[in-house]
Amino acid sequence: MGGGPSKMAPEPPEPLMAEWRPVWGHKNKDLQFVKDYQPYNEEVKQLRVLLHGLTGAGKSSFLNSVDSALQGRVTGRALADNTIAGESFTRKHKTYEFNKGGPGTFYPFVFTDLMGLEKETNKGVCVEDIKLAMKGHIQDRYKINPCSQISEDNQNYNKYPTLNDQVHVVVCVIDANTENILDDEYMKQIREVRLAARDLEIPQVAILTKIDEACPEVKADIKNVYKSKKLKQVVDNLSAELGIPLNCIFPVKNYHPEIDTNDEVDTLILSALNKIINSGEDYVNGL
User: Fold this and answer.
1) What is the pTM of this model?
2) 138 vs 1, which has greater pLDDT?
3) Which residues of 204-224 are buried (b: 16+ CB within 10 A; e: fewer)?
4) Crossing angle for the helix pair 263-286 and 27-36, nearest 10 degrees?
5) pLDDT score of 215 more than 90
6) Alpha carbon 26 to chain centroid distance?
């Protein structure tokens, strides 16, 4: 029989590691911070957050998850699609307020949702439209034209944006399952948006969605999120490729099959929201 030593199959990599970012136990603290928040700069009535990213990354679902964490119940105000057709379900430049307890009472921050970026031309949002949105030139409810950027004579073009119209935080939403297969064209578009935000000195945060689909250990117990080697690698790669600091990248699980909220999901969502608000507040006070 064969004379050589038998080769043993390599052991699978250890899926969990020592916690690389502490987070648990801060839900109530973060929720209270959000409830107490008011912009210090009197020119800013509402902190404006712009969501962008690839089609299907979970932008609308993240917006809904923020709303759910604040309301204490699963909501679905921003329409999200559950297909894999590869075409953005969001068609308009639409801004969402978050109700704060009573009718007509809202938190002093808003999220703007955009059509997703697409690899093929004439399908997704134009990068130039994202740049104009950051500067406050695009008014709410503008129906995005994938074939061309908004023109100055369009009725939804704001020629003279105020500080309150401008974007104060740019949030890039990325699917944890697709991070490693982002091709050059996608990366070029995301990088172009990032550089434009940098030139405007607008702070940037990245939201990593669908972490339960990317890592079985996190799906089994979401508290493993900051022990997952898989997610740590994804976060490190994103930071290296996009230049976003590690402490500005937040893994989250959006509400999807759930019909009730839970503390673990809320904790991740509110931790990210806390960072978004603080970043925007630093920006509007540093102008």
Assistant:
1) 0.87
2) 138
3) bbbbbbbbbebbebbeeebeb
4) 40
5) yes
6) 20
